[in-house]
Design brief:
Layout lengths: L1 H28 L10 E7 L14 E7 L12 H7 L3 E2 L14 E2 L6 H5 L5 E7 L14 E9 L9 E19 L14 E9 L1 H13 L1 E6 L16 E2 H4 L1 H5 L9 E6 L2 E6 L1
Antiparallel strand pairs: 1-2, 3-4, 5-8, 6-7, 6-9, 7-8, 7-10, 11-12
Length: about 280
């Protein structure tokens, strides 16, 4: 009898130990994990040397790992949002490759004095509207150099010359891009269906600004992006207008063939007359 009571006591003690151990494990599982403070930070740096006055493009940005205690004042943390905002901003002073980009080291589009700081002496800023197709579908960035192509319908011209394309501005710098709604005050019923159009601001001379504004009223403007490697000066042939008939031989072939004109001079009693057949 005593032996059985001893075994029973041992079983109860073992069960109690299991209960206590299980409760301890369960309690630890509900404790919040201790957060480990980060020891480094990712900051934005120049991916290549940038000159003062340069407009930042996406390829100009890189990331560097810096100890938290060594992050420079006003350094810009590397996030997708910060990269987007920096695109098109102007570097105030030259920045070496790997140099940390700071908020006080750039001027953002829309800041007071941005255009005045970006423009070269004697230059002007002109803004034109282009759609996603003519604006290279968002692939044109501030700092790119472009040609402006005008395509227009020529009223009263033969079919073969009814549409013409020509370069109105060549090798001009893009200094800003943006978007706004096309506002047509003549159509109040279609305001809810207005389509967005991109706006591109260009750095031009005073004469080029006048040409651009005239071209806007003649037809459709398109942007042609230049290669990153500039051609030697004077190596590119002059661009001459291209007409519809030069692009479409079928359109030229549809034009009526001019009939030859035969002229006969008739002299009678000293008077001269001319007849054309």
């Amino acid at each position: 009898m005593v032996f059985r009571l001893g075994i029973f006591a041992i079983l109860i003690a073992a069960l109690a130990a299991v209960v206590v151990f299980g409760y301890s494990i369960l309690n630890q599982s509900h404790k919040a994990p201790v957060a480990v403070a980060p020891t480094t930070e990712q900051v934005l740096v120049a991916a290549l040397p940038l000159s003062g006055g340069a407009l930042i493009q996406p390829t100009d940005l890189s990331s560097a790992t810096v100890p938290v205690g060594a992050v420079p004042a006003n350094a810009i943390i590397d996030t997708p949002q910060h990269r987007t905002v920096l695109t098109g901003a102007m570097i105030r002073t030259p920045l070496a490759q790997g140099g940390v980009i700071t908020n006080d080291g750039v001027i953002y589009p829309g800041d007071h004095g941005f255009l005045a700081a970006v423009l070269e002496p004697g230059m002007r800023a002109v803004t034109v509207a282009v759609d996603n197709v003519t604006g290279a579908d968002g692939l044109i960035w501030p700092g790119d150099r472009v040609d402006i192509l005008l395509t227009q319908n020529i009223v009263g011209a033969p079919d073969a010359k009814s549409i013409a394309a020509e370069i109105v501005l060549s090798d001009v710098r893009v200094i800003a891009t943006g978007s706004e709604l096309i506002k047509d005050s003549s159509d109040n019923s279609n305001k809810d269906n207005q389509q967005p159009a991109s706006t591109v601001t260009l750095e031009v001379t005073q004469e080029q600004a006048a040409r651009c504004l005239v071209a806007v009223n003649l037809g459709k403007l398109s942007l042609i992006v230049h290669s990153a490697e500039n051609s030697p000066s004077g190596s590119s042939p002059a661009f001459v207008p291209v007409y519809a008939g030069e692009v479409s031989p079928a359109l030229s072939a549809s034009q009526p063939t001019p009939q030859p004109v035969t002229t006969v001079n008739v002299i009678s009693s000293g008077d001269t007359g001319e007849f054309k057949f």
